[in-house]
């Protein structure tokens, strides 16, 4: 299984795991489980969510990497003394090299067990190119150094990247391609069935198949449907009927996706073609790539189709309504 393979990988000296996928696909949950497993092996864990970096931290690579080092130090129970940081911070070397040396010469030297560094929302750096370039280079250098450096092998990294960020970039692929790269797949029907049992929802095979089609196996959508159904004892048919509306349980999520499309008229028109089509269609390569990054379509060979019935129903109504108003 996916969990087992990632648990085995984090035990490897110098392991780097890159988890990629659209927003709300389950990357953060998987990161949490990997860190929890690491703690059962008596590894030290550090967790940094880059969405929590303030604007002042992101003003320069120096500020960012000092924040990075100080947070890791505190979470490891060590003293984040400015004089310690100063010993390894030489302006002539640059922020990237300074951060590398601080981890190698100071942090890893103070710790007896491997450190697992969990990095969530690293896509936040996409809007800060100077920092992003250095950060990708740092991950790559750690990964390469670990092949021959016993000290560097004590550092293990799990980085989560939301592919939603790719649509705001000039590149045609996500930049996080270091180490073992895993793009998170949707739940299988068996996993959906197991999750229903865990929520004590006695759904028939037909209802489970309907749910699989409606939510497309997306972990966030599936879990929220089960949570709402179990907690509030809602009628299953009524829950699905209201879900694809502006007042349903996914309204905030759907509004966010709609706003992204509205900010990119060409992409909005491309997705309108997808949701009104009864069969898979061919789009321009860049448009198809961006819609895949958002999780709005699935691609097979050169054709795309809506990734789930929830998106098809909601956006078919919304985009058809907008087209009528515009005309």
Q: Sheet with the most strands? A: 5 strands, parallel
**What spatial order of strands do you see in the largest sheet?**
2-3-4-1-5
Give the overall shape. globular
User: How many DSSP helices?
Assistant: 14
Q: Write down how many β-strands occur, each being a DSSP E stretch of 2 or more residues.
A: 8
Mean pLDDT, all residues: 89
Low-confidence runs: none
The ordered string of helix (H) and strand (E) elements is HEHEHHHEHEEHHHHHHEHEEH
What is the terminal separation in angstroms?
51 Å
Q: Give the DSSP E fraction (strand runs of 2 or more residues).
A: 5-15%
**Helix share bin:** 40-55%
**Which class do the helix and strand fractions yield?**
alpha/beta
What does this molecule look like?
The protein is α/β, with parallel strands linked by helices and 327 residues long. The protein has helices spanning 2-10, 27-40, 61-75, 82-87, 95-110, 129-145, 189-198, 205-215, 219-232, 236-243, 251-262, 265-276, 285-293, 309-326, and strands at residues 16-21, 44-49, 115-120, 155-162, 180-183, 281-282, 297-300, 303-306. A 5-stranded parallel beta sheet has the order 2-3-4-1-5, with helices on both faces. It has a 3-stranded antiparallel beta sheet with strand order 6-8-7. The longest helix is centred in the last third of the chain and has 18 residues, at 309-326. It starts with a helix and ends with a helix. The model has no long low-confidence stretch (mean pLDDT 89).
């Amino acid at each position: 299984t996916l969990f087992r393979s990632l648990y085995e990988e984090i035990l490897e000296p110098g392991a780097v795991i890159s988890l990629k996928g659209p927003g709300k696909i389950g990357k953060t949950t998987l990161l949490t489980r990997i860190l929890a497993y690491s703690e059962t092996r008596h590894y030290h864990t550090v967790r940094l969510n880059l969405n929590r970096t303030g604007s002042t931290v992101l003003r320069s690579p120096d500020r960012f990497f000092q924040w990075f080092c100080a947070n890791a130090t505190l979470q490891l129970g060590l003293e984040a003394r400015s004089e310690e940081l100063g010993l390894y911070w030489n302006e002539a070397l640059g922020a990237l090299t300074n951060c590398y040396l601080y981890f190698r010469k100071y942090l890893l030297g103070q710790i007896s067990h491997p450190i697992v560094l969990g990095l969530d929302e690293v896509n936040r750096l996409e809007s800060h190119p100077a920092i992003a370039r250095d950060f990708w280079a740092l991950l790559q250098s750690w990964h390469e150094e670990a092949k021959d450096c016993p000290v560097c092998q004590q550092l293990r990294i799990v980085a989560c990247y939301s592919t939603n960020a790719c649509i705001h970039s000039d590149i045609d692929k996500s930049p996080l391609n270091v180490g073992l790269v895993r793009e998170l797949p949707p739940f299988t029907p068996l996993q959906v069935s197991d999750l229903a049992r865990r929520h004590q929802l006695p759904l028939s095979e037909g209802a489970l198949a309907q749910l699989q089609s409606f939510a497309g196996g997306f972990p966030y959508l599936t879990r929220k449907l089960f949570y709402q159904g179990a907690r509030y004892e809602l009628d299953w048919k009524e829950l699905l009927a209201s879900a694809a509306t502006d007042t349903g349980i996914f309204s905030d999520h759907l509004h966010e996706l709609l706003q992204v499309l509205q900010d990119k008229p060409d992409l909005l028109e491309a997705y309108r073609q997808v949701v009104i089509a009864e069969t898979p269609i061919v789009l321009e390569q860049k448009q198809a790539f961006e819609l895949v990054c958002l999780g709005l379509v699935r691609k097979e060979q050169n054709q795309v189709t809506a990734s789930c019935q929830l998106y098809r129903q909601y956006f078919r109504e919304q985009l058809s309504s907008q087209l009528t108003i515009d005309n």
